Amino acid sequence: MKATLATARQLGLVSCHDCHLLTHMPQIARHQAALCPRCGCELHQRKPNSIIRTWALVITAMVFYVPANVLPMTITSALGSTQADTIMSGVIYFMHHGSWEIALVIFTASIFVPFMKFIILIYLLLTVQFRSIKRPSDRTRLYRLTEAVGRWSMVDIYVVTILIALVKLGVLANIEAGPAAIYFASVVVITMIAAESFDPRLIWDALEEQHE
Amino acid sequence: MNEGNSNVKPVEQAPQAQIRTKRSFSIIWVVPVVALVIGGWLAYKAWSEKGPEIKISFESADGLEANKTKIKFKDVEIGTLTAIDLKGDLSGVVATAEMKKDTARYMNDKTQFWVVRARVAAGEVSGLGTLFSGAYIGCNPSDEGKPAKEFIGLEKPPIVTSGQPGRHFTLSADNLGSLDVGSPVYYRGIKVGQVIAYDFDDQAESVNLTIFVHAPYHEKVMQDSRFWNASGIDLTLNTEGVKVDTQSLVSIMLGGVAFDLPEMFEPSQPAEQNRSFKLYENRESSNERTYTVKRYYMMYFNQNVRGLTPGAPVEIMGIKLGEVVDVKLEMNADDLSARIAVLVLIEPERIDTVVEHRVATTGAKHSVSGEGSKDEVRQLVAKGLRAQLKTGSLLTGQLYIDLDFYKNAPPAKVETANGHLVFPTIPAPLEQIVQKVDKILEKFNKVPLEKIGKNLQEAVATLTLALNEIKTMSGNVNGETLPKVNATLEELQRTLKGVEATLGADSALNYNVRTITDELSATLRSVRSLVDYLDRNPEALIFGKEGNKP
Question: Are the beta carbons of B31 and A11 separated by less than 8 Å?
């Protein structure tokens, strides 16, 4: 096994979040917290409660994902006929009307990406919890992908808000945001927080423990 | 780490972090709990708001779209179509709809559904909004009836009247004519309602129309109001000229119903809901009186009744009393004789009966005829009332039945046949003449003309003989008797001359006779005075005249 440089955690050192002061991390009990001696900030070797927090947020996002897809996203009324569209019905609508590119964009951004994020996060959480040592770099790449792509899911929300603002023609045509918009926005935001709260160093910790 | 910086301590000298006690519970779990609460609430809401699912079948799904087409009542959305499927036998489509929760109690077998599309018909334009917005399903909920899940959609929108103020009435007509659902109902030219439904009656003998009259006009429908079919143009040509009776242009094209109170009636109580009326063919016939008492009589005729049709009038002295109901031939199986049985309808109320100098009004108890007054019929028949076929129009040959009193009519009895009183008849005038001539000819036929001729011949011969005798006789008279007669006459003349001489005015006999006569009269005068005196003084016979006394 190739010798590696000792990590800060192995050396019992920790860097402060705020003032970045390098400190010795004492052995603390579960109900105790270490504070930075200079600025008083709470010190963590890893993101605190990373796994539990991520789990909670992922579950929350998944709960909101259901109404986001079942409830109508936009309520379009044109000349007296009111039509409520869910995300999926919008995708189907565009597909049937030949705009498969738009359908693909909406599907990717609004349905596939959030769903993919759930899968990736759950996969990462499970592998970390079971101290998997397989393909840590691939998993880290997945994590980066999740983090990078997360905000693009908001495209749908932006489109809806722009449409609402633009199409205000009274009786002729009117678009209103459906209740799904709020849930969908929540899903996007919560998955972004979840991705943020996940500490990718945990992927590698298992690897280090293996070496010790 | 900058080695050159003398202030920097080695890693080993890094300060020790302070220690603080912290909560063991991670607050992060509140987030998914909140999410679950929200999700659970949404799920509960969706579940609790889920109304009944119903199925409506239509002939076609024209304009209907799943998840888009709404079900509306009074333009309020009460449901949405969720699926449209073909029926198993391809005879139509079944639309599945999810209704709102609070509509459940209105979904019963009396609830009606129909597709609202743009409808442009004469006199009515509706549903124009659906041109842009697409069709929707109209609903007329009903809270009476058995709960139902499957409905049959109407192809034409009904006239929704539930909840509107007004009244429904039923009209019975012989046929529908040009009326239709939606045909207007007029009162004095103002549209006050419309026909909302029509159907056969139980025996399919007439058509029952249901009309709806809006408030406040429903108070104008009186119990005695007459309804008539105001469709088209009613053109009447009579002695007063041409009379055109129409309602509005719409009713000319579409048909309509009008009603009014006949002039002869006093305003009565407003008609109650669902009252039945008769629908007359036109205004004219609606003004005719109606008579509730109807009596049927049978009349038998032994003559050609060509031109006598059901509906032909029965008149008495030119006043219509009823009409012919049925004409049929009756064959007697025993002697193969045929006669025409005519069933007539008499409305006795058409006659005002005068009783004790008081005019009884319509519907009086003293009707002229009828089952209940068989005796009266008997009396009338006994007085000579007979029925007779008469020609109403020489051009068309239409016959009518005329009732009249015939003093010389042969006596007849009022019988009963097939449950009807049989009214005696007499033959028609022409028929009568023919019969009389027949009778004369018959008698003439009986005269023994041959015998008469023979007798006559004999008589003539005898007469000739007699004449000959007379002739010889007169010859004798001329030759012998006449000269003798002449001589006799001459002698008579001479005798008369002698008589004249004796008894002439200047004859002695004549003078003497006159003198005697004078003397006789004087004597008689004396005697009369004597008698008078004696009458006054009878004692004179004994004592003599008083004047002679001393």
Answer: no
Question: Domain range holding B245?
Answer: 166-286
Q: Does A96 touch chain B (CB under 8 A)?
A: no
Residue B160 makes CB contacts below 8 A (sequence gap 6+) with: B138, B140
User: Domain end: B286, B303, B333, which one?
Assistant: B286
Together in a domain, B300 and B431: yes
Q: Supply the ipTM of this predicted assembly.
A: 0.71
- The low-confidence residues of chain B, meaning pLDDT below 70, are 1-12, 22-25, 121-124, 127, 129, 131-133, 159-162, 232, 234-241, 245-251, 254, 288-290, 292, 352-373, 394, 431, 546-550
Determine, for residues B17 and A83 on separate chains, whether the beta-carbon distance falls below 8 Å. Answer: no
CA nearest to B35 within chain A: A60
CB contact under 8 A, B16 and A37: yes
Q: Is residue B117 part of a domain?
A: yes
Dist CA A123 CA A145 (whole Å): 14
Do B311 and B228 lie in one domain? The reply is no
Q: Which of B17, B31, B129 sits opposite A34 (nearest CB)?
A: B17
Mutate to test the interface with B, among A58, A81, A169, A192 (most CBs of B within 10 A): A81
> Alpha-carbon distance B485 to B324, whole Å?
90
Is the separation of the CB atoms in B97 and B79 below 8 Å? yes
Contact flag B21-A57 (C-beta cutoff 8 Å): no
Count of CB atoms situated within 10 Å of the CB of A123: 14
Q: Give every CB contact of residue B213 below 8 A, 6+ residues apart in sequence.
A: B166, B167, B169, B185, B187, B192, B193, B220, B221
- Matching CATH number, A47-211, of 3.40.1350, 1.20.140, 2.50.20, 3.90.550: 1.20.140
A22 Cβ under 8 Å from any chain B Cβ:
yes
The distance of B31 to chain A (nearest Cα, Å) reads: 7
Hey, are the CB atoms on B28 and A52 less than 8 Å from each other?
yes
Name which of A24, A38, A64 is nearest B39 (Cβ-Cβ). A64
* Cβ proximity of A91 and A102 under 8 Å: no
Q: Does residue A17 contact residue A44 with C-beta atoms inside 8 Å?
A: yes
DSSP code for B143: S
Give pLDDT, residue B366: 42
Chain B positions touching chain A (beta carbons under 8 Å): 11, 14-24, 26, 28-29, 31-32, 34-36, 38-39, 42, 67-68, 70, 129, 132-134
pLDDT tens digits along A132-181 = 888 888 888 999 888 888 778 888 888 888 888 888 887 778 888 888 89
Distance separating alpha carbons of residues B192 and B173, to the nearest angstrom: 20
